[in-house]
Amino acid sequence: MEKQELSPKVLAAYKAVAELFMEGADLSSLTVSEITARAGIGKGTVYDYFANKEEMLAGALYHEMDVVCAELYKQLQKKRNLYEKMEQILVDMEEHMQEVGCAFKVLHLLMDNSQVSKQLRELFRRRKDNEIPLFALLRELIIEELGEDISLSGEDITYLVMNTVSRLICYAMYLNQDEAVRSFDTKTMRERLCRDICRDVEENRQPGED
Amino acid sequence: MEKQELSPKVLAAYKAVAELFMEGADLSSLTVSEITARAGIGKGTVYDYFANKEEMLAGALYHEMDVVCAELYKQLQKKRNLYEKMEQILVDMEEHMQEVGCAFKVLHLLMDNSQVSKQLRELFRRRKDNEIPLFALLRELIIEELGEDISLSGEDITYLVMNTVSRLICYAMYLNQDEAVRSFDTKTMRERLCRDICRDVEENRQPGED
Amino acid sequence: MEKQELSPKVLAAYKAVAELFMEGADLSSLTVSEITARAGIGKGTVYDYFANKEEMLAGALYHEMDVVCAELYKQLQKKRNLYEKMEQILVDMEEHMQEVGCAFKVLHLLMDNSQVSKQLRELFRRRKDNEIPLFALLRELIIEELGEDISLSGEDITYLVMNTVSRLICYAMYLNQDEAVRSFDTKTMRERLCRDICRDVEENRQPGED
Amino acid sequence: MEKQELSPKVLAAYKAVAELFMEGADLSSLTVSEITARAGIGKGTVYDYFANKEEMLAGALYHEMDVVCAELYKQLQKKRNLYEKMEQILVDMEEHMQEVGCAFKVLHLLMDNSQVSKQLRELFRRRKDNEIPLFALLRELIIEELGEDISLSGEDITYLVMNTVSRLICYAMYLNQDEAVRSFDTKTMRERLCRDICRDVEENRQPGED
DNA sequence: TATGAATGAGATTTCATTCAT
DNA sequence: AATGAATGAAATCTCATTCAT
């Protein structure tokens, strides 16, 4: 679905950025030295492929989100319904904040005013469908749930997607809190969220179809 | 409700940070010089009050969020019901992404891995109620709507707060899009969100009342 | 004759540049570290006073040429006539390629395409009389020799100045050769040049006076 | 008169350097990439023929000066006397600062302290006659003017050559000024210079021969 | 022989922080 | 208490040079 011909050096850099990012590094204090050391490539090599550090970071995160979402989508196909798929996403977010969490961190980053954020938005803007992979993924899941024959308008589906994304973000915020101060145990929280997401989707099912 | 005895120099610094932040400055590339120049104070003065730059930034944003939320709360008292209050918040977010938007930016910042974010989380952790003002504000609004005599559990209210936050985040995401690609016009979006927030709250009203 | 209020840090930097330059350093491979180490100031200090390295170098050389020419002019007043003054200049050029030589190196630099050269030309362009100090010095010497009452046109004097400069360049070229291959001994060379310079000046004395 | 067996790759590099140099590039900020890109050869190829960048630059300029002077000499043979030849040189310097100008730029470079200058001086030192082509050219012109049977000493001719070179350098300096501040129109300047150069040569003609 | 991807030393420049005033 | 000149650590980025192909 994407350009396949990424040089091994670029891939090494991307991998290093993704790793560091998932390990909790702060993007704005990540240095080129750190990244290239981790990637096992020369410091100057980065500048053979990118105009500057920010371009590399944006490229890495763009690529990472694509990869993570594609992988996630594949795994979610094993689940039977939206509830289970959402549950899986939430469990993933909790267990390995790494993989799925990374997609959310990138989503978060997109609302920054940092230089990396600007470059990243530019990358997404250039896509044919102009849609962030995470959004595209959720759109897909919702459509699958409603069935191909739904007559729901594009606007309504977009609203459902945004609604779902924002609930997931909320869950990320919840996970981000100290465990000590959480009012809910995580399982309860997950159940309520999945229930509400599914309810919102069901409500939008064509009334006449029922 | 807060320490009142803030030195005028500190207040000047806080004000400068808040202004720059609201004008869209990227926190991680904000310099002490920029801030003190804007504040009209000496560069060294900052270090008479704060251990380092990050502490100052965190202090400024912490303070700003308090002030903004207190002000917002006061203004919302003029509205008659939750729907109108929420509508007001959403309108504020659009019109002056500045003031209310600032609170969301801080909320956003809280999920970072930056040094400022860590210090800011620490500040909130030290609060007596350990609650972020924006959340406290929404909790207040919901309780007011449901009436004092509700028998809703704390958990339920917390969930309603999160649910509301997620709707607001949804709106922030919507506003963050290029106008060209938005599926809805802003007014429709606002109405849907307010409607859904109120419905979710109403659904949680005393079960026995049903 | 010039701005007197140069900060001691700036003066230290200027002095270091002048020293290194006179010791034969290549301007384009001179580093900020070398300069500030020699000047005994911090590396960053340079950037409190100059926008970049080139601006500092140009400033230093501009200042140095002024100082050297002023000093040279003072010393030449002790000599009785043009011949002796020229001889003194040539001896200076040989003995301390340092002081007078520096002025010639700057003159030379002015014909470069380097960034420093551009900045330096800009500095000279901003002068009120728009004249390079070395040229101004020679003009002065020639006018003194011819007496105040000369009716020589400005163009004629300018041509005499250039003629003199070319003789001095000739000597610089001579000194620049390996001693082994010089056709003349230095003293003979000096005498020829001084003789020719004076002859050219005398020839331009009022024709009617003859 | 020179090594003929220059590899086509080397010639391409030389040509590229000469072009860039004549277009006004600053030697010290010229990169190997720029040169090889212009030459249409691989970056590594340079190091099959030269020990380092400086050696290549020096080689290119050395070669260029030879070529330019040989070409210039050929063209000057069409002129009848020294005055016309000098005039031609001066006109060339003005019109296409490129070709003849290049020889002067190299001459200028020879008085630098840069690495390239050192290597270039070394190259000239290894010549059988140890003479810079431009000097040799002028020596030839002067001897032609004075006639083969002159009994002028080598020293006297060398002095005349240096005198001529320095006048030409002076003209280059004059051309290098902003047109706005030149005291003379170019034609007048040229005439005076040619007149004085010829006069200086004539004066040295054997008096007894007259 | 020729290439150009890769390297990393080293340059410029920024900016948080200190401290004499 | 307040200042801002001075510092130097550390970051980004360049580019001469190497070397596997």
Gap between N and C termini of chain A: 36 Å
Query: What is the C-alpha radius of gyration of chain A, as a whole number of Å?
Result: 19 Å
Beta strands of chain A, count: 0
Question: What are the low-pLDDT stretches of chain A, counting only 5+ consecutive residues below 50?
Answer: none
Structural domain count of chain A:
2
Structural class of chain A: mainly alpha
Q: What number is the mean pLDDT of chain A?
A: 88
Oligomer kind: homotetramer
Strand content of chain A: under 5%
Order of helices and strands of chain A: HHHHHHHHHH
What's the topology here?
4 copies of one chain form a homotetramer.
Chain A: H1 8-22, H2 32-39, H3 46-49, H4 53-76, H5 82-95, H6 99-109, H7 115-125, H8 133-146, H9 154-176, H10 186-203
Helix pairs in contact in A: 1-2, 1-4, 4-6, 4-7, 5-10, 8-9, 9-10
Chain B binds a DNA duplex (21 and 21 nucleotides) through residues 7, 9, 31-33, 36, 41-48, 52-53.
Outline the structure in words.
- By secondary structure, chain A is mainly α.
- Chain A folds into 2 domains: 44 residues, Arc Repressor Mutant, subunit A; 139 residues.
- The first copy, chain A, is 68% helix and 0% strand.
- In chain A, helix 1 packs across helix 2 and helix 9 runs antiparallel to helix 10.
- The mean pLDDT of chain A is 88.
- Chains A and B meet through helix 9 and helix 10 of A and helix 9 and helix 10 of B.
- Chain B binds a DNA duplex (21 and 21 nucleotides) through helix 2 and helix 3.
